[in-house]
Amino acid sequence: MAVRRILAAVLILFGAALTGIALRHYARGFEAQREARRAFATRLDVRSVSPALPAIPAGRTLPRDTYPLGQPIAWLLVPSAQIDAIVFGGSDPGTLEKGPGHVPGTELPGRRTGLNNCVITAHRDADFRNLGRLRKGERVELTTPECRESYRVVSRDVVDPADVAVLAPTPSPRLTLITCYPFSFIGHAPKRLVVVAEPDQPSGAPQDSLR
């Protein structure tokens, strides 16, 4: 009986520790998003970031000389998946704890460098928890200090983590959203859900530039 009580106490403490770690993770993400929204709103020269796309003045640009690792670089809005988050530069664990991260080596949001494929990733139990809801034709908005772009989902696939082709440059502009899959898997999920969206405007048409 004593052994069972000890085992039960250990399991309770273990569960409490896991809960504490999870709560700390979410708290850090919430605080990082709050601070990033404030900083991003300053760049956009508005008083606050709201669910509606803000008016963005000309002359606001992100640093161009170095990669903005860990810095807020874009605002991602996906109404049908209830995604409303600031995107940070980088896809390392520390950055992804803050929110969605841009994958270095892919097209930076709001830029045109010829890479075309802008890849953003996030945790399946946090900002991209509803990414699986996205279906073909649904809208995705991406706002930067340079411009705001509207996309429509064109495909969704489940791939192996080793399938780096989803990160490769593409002939025309696209937005690629990636998270771990399946969503209900406990531990490190074995697959990746890849959602691809393309601009509403035809390839080559001018974007909603804010320069």
Q: Key features?
A:
211 residues; alpha+beta; Sortase, Chain: A; 8-stranded mixed β-barrel; 2 helices; 9 strands; 27% strand
What report would you give on this structure?
This protein is an alpha+beta fold. It has one domain: Sortase, Chain: A. It has 2 helices and 9 strands. An 8-stranded mixed barrel has the order 1-2-3-4-7-8-6-5. Strand 2, helix 2 (93-98) and strand 3 (101-102) form a beta-alpha-beta unit. It is globular. The N and C termini lie far apart (73 Å). The relative contact order is 0.14.
Quick overview:
This protein has 211 residues and is of the alpha+beta class. It contains two helices and nine strands.
Helix residue percentage: 10-25%
CATH architecture descriptor? Beta Barrel
How many beta strands in the DSSP annotation? Answer: 9
> Could you name the CATH topology?
Sortase, Chain: A
The top-level CATH class is: Mainly Beta
Q: If you compute it from the alpha carbons, what radius of gyration comes out, rounded to the nearest whole angstrom? A: 19 Å
Output the number of helix runs: 2
Shape: globular
Overall pLDDT score: 80
CATH superfamily: Sortase
Number of domains: 1
Q: CA-to-CA gap between the ends?
A: 73 Å
Sheet of most strands: 8 strands, mixed, barrel
Task: Give the arrangement of secondary structure elements.
Blueprint: H1 2-44, E1 72-78, E2 83-89, H2 93-98, E3 101-102, E4 117-121, E5 139-143, E6 147-159, E7 174-181, E8 191-199, E9 208-209
Parallel strand pairs: 2-3, 4-7
Antiparallel strand pairs: 1-2, 1-5, 3-4, 5-6, 6-8, 6-9, 7-8
